[in-house]
Design brief:
The structure is a single chain. This protein is an all-alpha fold. The protein has one domain (56-271). The protein is built from eleven helices and no strands. It has helices at residues 2-13, 44-53, 57-61, 68-99, 116-141, 144-149, 170-182, 192-211, 219-225, 235-240, 256-271. Helix 2 packs antiparallel against helix 4. The longest helix is centred in the N-terminal third of the chain and has 32 residues, at 68-99. The protein is globular, with a radius of gyration of 21 Å. The relative contact order is 0.12.
């Protein structure tokens, strides 16, 4: 792992490294130095092309029985997700094109070294800032007005699948996604490559959390109980006491695909 990190940081620090020498994408190019940005967008045409380019095995490997209802839910998650992602992609590429160059830390690592310390600090700031932002906007989303018009749409999936990660109202998708992702870069200088790796891993993490089989912050419990586990990583839930508590929620949540196994074990215990 350390060797991989050293290789990544050495590449980031190689200002002569030009990704265009290694990767060719029709109608789109990378900046000559990745210390500034990950995409070079100079016109509305390039902006639209980037939106097209930036665009799950988890669903079909999930142990939940592929009943007609489950398949219909998956299709609905995908439909809503594609709709929301359309706006997310437009805003994300727009921020890369127009907003990030205004960032006071833009191009910071063109003249400063990037090492393990910078990587570690940026990771902590990214996780804390994103968690606070997501938690706050999520709590607001549960207020009656915002629930009715925005966030309630996402909670129609009581037992979500991986695709439910993006199956949200477009307004909510913009607030909790791109804004939460880019906000930390105005607090601390992030290397563009490192920053976008964080974003990719966060998206994958969120898909696993909705999938339910690997869910360290208990997001599937949030879909079941509604009033606990609001944050991404569980940090804000721990601080503000809004995490899942078995005494407060005495009825345990058992996923449908596990209930038959649990019932059969209970029957075996009764027989013994």
């Amino acid at each position: 792992m350390m060797k991989l990190l050293l290789l990544m940081t050495s590449i980031m620090n190689s200002y002569c490294f030009n990704p265009n020498d290694y990767v060719t994408i029709p109608f789109l190019r990378f900046p000559d130095s990745l210390s500034y940005n990950v995409l070079e967008i100079n016109s509305i045409f390039e902006y639209l092309i980037a939106s097209v380019y930036i665009g799950q095995i988890l669903v079909w490997s999930h142990p939940a029985p592929k009943t007609p209802d489950r398949i219909a839910q998956t299709k609905e998650e995908m439909r809503r997700g594609v709709k929301a992602l359309f706006y997310v992609i437009l805003l994300t590429t727009g921020i890369i094109w127009k907003i990030q160059p205004l960032n006071p830390y833009y191009g910071y690592y063109e003249t400063h070294e990037f090492g393990f310390k910078e990587f570690f600090v940026s990771l902590i700031i990214y996780m804390v800032t994103f968690d606070v932002w997501f938690y706050t906007s999520h709590i607001i989303g549960h207020m009656p007005f915002f629930w009715k018009h925005f966030h309630g749409e996402h909670h129609e999936f009581v037992e979500p699948g991986a695709y439910a990660q993006d199956a949200v109202h477009p307004v909510e998708a913009l607030i909790q996604g791109p804004i939460g992702h880019f906000l930390p870069t105005f607090i601390y200088p992030f290397h563009p490559v490192c920053h976008h790796i964080f974003g990719l891993l966060t998206s994958v993490y969120a898909q696993f959390a909705h999938d339910g089989r690997w869910d360290p912050a208990g997001h599937t419990l949030h879909h079941y109980y509604y009033s606990c586990n609001f944050s991404i990583w569980g940090l804000c839930d721990f601080i503000f006491g809004t995490g899942y508590n078995q005494q407060k929620y005495p009825i345990p949540y058992i996923p449908t695909w596990l209930r038959s196994k649990v019932n059969s074990k209970n029957q075996d215990k009764k027989i013994m």
